[in-house]
Amino acid sequence: DRGAEIPSNRASLLFGSRPAAPETESPTRIPDRATICQCNGVTKGVLCASFLDGNRSVAQLAQSTRATTGCGGCRDTVNAIVDWLTAAEPAQSLTG
Asked: CA 31 to CA 63: how far, in whole Å?
């Protein structure tokens, strides 16, 4: 009735099109007070503190902070923070 062209993906008329996933911001640009996990109210500062306390993987951070245990929408950002912290960590000596 509007005279518009029919899209090539006709199902999008019924279901809509999904927006592209947002790009993960560089962890260096995220302030410590920024909430990373909206479901559980976990900030970047809390994730960093937990990492420094020995929780070195996303699974360990999830267990200690509950980040990523809700909808999972923050998993990529938490992953990026873990990678960033791991890369920034000085190599530890194996001599003891």
From this structure: 23
CA–CA separation, 34 and 14 (whole Å): 36
In this prediction, residues 24-44 reach a mean pLDDT of 90
Measure CA of the first residue to CA of the last residue in the chain; give whole Å. 78
Across the range 7-23, mean pLDDT stands at: 60
Question: Count of CB atoms within 10 A of residue 54's CB?
Answer: 8
CA distances from 61 to 12, 43, 84 (A): 38, 12, 14
**Which one has a higher pLDDT value, 90 or 43?**
43
- The rounded percent of the chain whose pLDDT value lies above 70 is 72
Joined tokens for residue 82? 């873990």
